[in-house]
User: What shape does this take?
Amino acid sequence: MRMKIDVLTIFPEFFREVFDFGIIRRAKLAKIVEINVCDIRSFTTDKHEKTDDRPFGGGDGMVMKCEPIFRAIEEIIGTCERENYPSGMKVVLLSPQGKQFKQSVAREFADEAKHLILICGRYEGVDERVNDVLVTDEISIGDYVLSGGEAAAIVLTDAIVRLLPNALGSETSAVNDSFTEDLLDYPHYTQPREFRGMEVPEVLLSGNHAEIEKWRKEKAFEKTLNFRKDLLEKEHS
Ligand code: ADE
Assistant: This one.
């Protein structure tokens, strides 16, 4: 098994079939990845199985309690001290406050992580002691607020698993993906050659690979310039 992923959530049903399609399903069957979904509620010890409570200091909404999350991590890893995690262990808190998730972060996780735990925050937030002690990376998938980290956990899992060695199969490759070189992807066409008067660009039918390559580079640049100029202006580190 190249990577193990544990998702911690109060809504395990949310994930019932989402990892059973396409590349993720194939990677699971090929034992490239193992994905477990753990119910945070099962780590509560009180009779009401409380996973949230009112915020100290007052204010709206509820805050996710730290005890069940600590217990879950302790059971899964065997320790809840970040310093004692085994190498390749990443404990990720999904929240809008996190570092922005990008293709480069997906690549870093795919290359370096052996075991990923994704904690899905809910309500107004998660008790900060989870962040202080357990979490190695706090990650946001974008500048908008979701009702919880569940959808974000799916985004991370998908983007990371497809980069694991052999996950894409021989017919495809991640090398030409959008963002790999800070460019959007070029346009694609397949049969039929003409559809409702719309023709496939002539160059793609020419068989001239150098010309096709040149056209694709130009189109990728054009798309990036039109929709994501920021990618071209980015400083390269
Ligand atoms: N939870 C709520 N909003 C989120 C976001 N933008 N990214 C990750 N987790 C979240």
In short: Residues 94-96, 121, 140-142, 144-146, 148-149, 152 surround adenine (CB under 6 Å). The first strand starts at residue 3 and ends at 9.
